Every structure is written in structure tokens, then in C-alpha cells.
């Protein structure tokens, strides 16, 4: 077997509409609906599906819960500009720009949290 890419992942959330608002208005993703009105956000060639806590679509994660994800997203926007935009939108950024390691090498990152407390790392390759 050879896995080639990530297509989508699922976040279990307290309030799907609140999550959609955060991921579209703060992170600039596009809201989409699919299969019987399910909600997701799309960015690049990937998407994030949302499961409402207690109403998860089967099959689902064995221990589905809110706030347990740690996600790294890549941006083409300068991180300094991302910081400015987050501050302008009253988003609590929990780190300055820090050096990390991504899948392909050195990255610079900032961290924030979504409405459910998931850790969102926004990064650029050095």
C-alpha cells in the first residue's frame, strides 16, 4: 500500500454553524454542503467535514470529542500579515512566530484555537 495524500478530515464540534463561521470568516475557507445537507469547508484541494457532537455520521472516530485536534495549515500569506489580520479580527493568537518542522522541512508558525479549542497552527515553509 502507498498512501499519497490527505483528502479530508473530520472535526467533531459543539456547534457546526459556529465552526463554519470561524473557518470561513477567520481562516478564509469556503463553506460547502454535501450529502443530505452535511457541512464542510474547503481550502486548496482539501476539506474539513464537521460532525455535530452527539449526532456523528457513522462510522466515526471511536472516541469522538471536541477540542482534541492539533492541525497544521499552510499559508501563502506572510505570517506577519496573518498576525495582523488575526488581531484585526480579534482572534487570540497564542504564540508569536516560532520555528517548527513540517513534513518537508523547516517552517515558521503561529498558533491559535478554533471555537472548540482545537489547536490551529498556521505555517509557512522557510
From TrEMBL:
Provenance organism: Campylobacter californiensis
One Pfam entry name: Glyoxalase
VOC domain location: 5-125
SUPFAM superfamilies: Glyoxalase/Bleomycin resistance protein/Dihydroxybiphenyl dioxygenase
Protein name, as recorded: VOC family protein
Amino acid at each position: 500500500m502507498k498512501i499519497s495524500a490527505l483528502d479530508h478530515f473530520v472535526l467533531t464540534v459543539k456547534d457546526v454553524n459556529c465552526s463554519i463561521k470561524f473557518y470561513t470568516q477567520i481562516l478564509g475557507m469556503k463553506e460547502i454542503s454535501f450529502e443530505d445537507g452535511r457541512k464542510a469547508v474547503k481550502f486548496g484541494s482539501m476539506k474539513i467535514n464537521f460532525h455535530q457532537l452527539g449526532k456523528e455520521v457513522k462510522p466515526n472516530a471511536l472516541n469522538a470529542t471536541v477540542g482534541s485536534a492539533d492541525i497544521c495549515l499552510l499559508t501563502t500569506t506572510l505570517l506577519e500579515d496573518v498576525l495582523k489580520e488575526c488581531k484585526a479580527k480579534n482572534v487570540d493568537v497564542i504564540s508569536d512566530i516560532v520555528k517548527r518542522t513540517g513534513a518537508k522541512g523547516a517552517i515558521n508558525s503561529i498558533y491559535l484555537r478554533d471555537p472548540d479549542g482545537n489547536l490551529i497552527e498556521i505555517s509557512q515553509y522557510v
